[in-house]
Design goal:
The complex is a heterodimer of chains A (115) and B (116).
Chain A lengths: L2 E3 L4 E5 L4 E3 L2 E3 L5 E8 L6 E7 L7 E2 L2 E6 L4 E6 L8 E9 L7 E2 L3 E6 L1
Parallel strand pairs in A: 2-12
Antiparallel strand pairs in A: 1-4, 3-9, 5-6, 5-10, 7-8, 8-9, 10-11, 10-12
Chain B lengths: L3 E4 L2 E4 L5 E7 L6 E7 L5 E8 L5 E2 L8 E7 L2 E6 L8 E8 L7 E3 L3 E5 L1
Parallel strand pairs in B: 2-11
Antiparallel strand pairs in B: 1-3, 3-8, 4-5, 4-9, 5-6, 7-8, 9-10, 9-11
The chains are: A mainly beta (115), B mainly beta (116).
Chain lengths: 115, 116
């Protein structure tokens, strides 16, 4: 069975600094998608970044980037120049290649940003 | 981006009554919709997967007679909590996916259910 693990229940970062959130997953599939979602206090889930497993290049979205290590089944999120608005729960997630496949979420990491 | 709405955003009901939560995709047709339950400071727990025109597929441990899901059209799915009890109080989130669009899920804003 596929599983997603986030080993850091809570993290904190100084404003303007960089923080890395860890995620590992377990799967026997070769074609899949990985995501990082942000859930602020409003509880609206927001997609931060997406990575297709067949792509070797790490995805980037402005201040957000990932370090995707397929062999190690690792998918960490780096947030650069942290801002107060980055404070939220962050969930790593995994899904297979069709729209019918369910998404498996990790337990989440609560990120605090210190002014 | 694609927008998913949920209604109501908050609902309070008495124990023993039924509550219906609607999930709508506003500007796209959703091939598949998902219903999640989230406890405070916890991750999203998938309850069921709903495909338009067919019966929902429930996750292990989720009572299908308790949580009725209807996906009547490509833009609407409903979750009905029947004979609600205080332990059903939770945050319920729906999401929708479009076939072939990077497999991204578009999430609704959630519904907070409180059963007295």
């Amino acid at each position: 069975a596929q599983t997603v693990t986030q080993s850091q229940p809570e993290m904190s970062v100084q404003e303007a600094e960089t923080v890395t959130l860890s995620c590992t997953y377990d799967t026997s599939e070769s074609d899949y998608y990985l995501f990082w979602y942000k859930q602020p206090p409003s509880r609206q889930m927001i997609l931060v970044i997406r990575q297709e497993a067949y792509k070797q290049q790490n995805a980037t979205e402005n201040r957000f980037s990932v370090n995707f290590q397929k062999a190690a089944k690792s998918f960490s999120l780096k947030i650069s120049d942290s801002q107060l608005g980055d404070a939220a729960m962050y969930f790593c997630a995994y899904t297979l290649g069709t729209s019918y496949d369910k998404v498996i979420f990790g337990p989440g990491t609560s990120l605090s940003v210190i002014p | 981006g694609a927008v998913v709405s949920q209604h109501p955003s908050r609902v309070i009901c008495k124990s023993g009554t039924s509550v219906k939560i609607e999930c709508r995709s506003l500007d796209f047709q959703a091939t598949t919709m998902f219903w999640y339950r989230q406890f405070p400071k916890k991750s999203l727990m998938l309850m069921a997967t709903s495909n338009e025109g067919s019966k929902a597929t429930y996750e292990q441990g989720v009572e299908k007679d308790k949580f009725l899901i209807n996906h009547a059209s490509l833009t609407l799915s409903t979750l009905t909590v029947t004979s609600a009890h205080p332990e059903d109080s939770s945050f319920y989130i729906c999401s929708a996916r479009i076939a072939g669009v990077g497999n991204e899920q578009f999430f609704g804003p959630g519904t907070r259910l409180t059963v007295l």
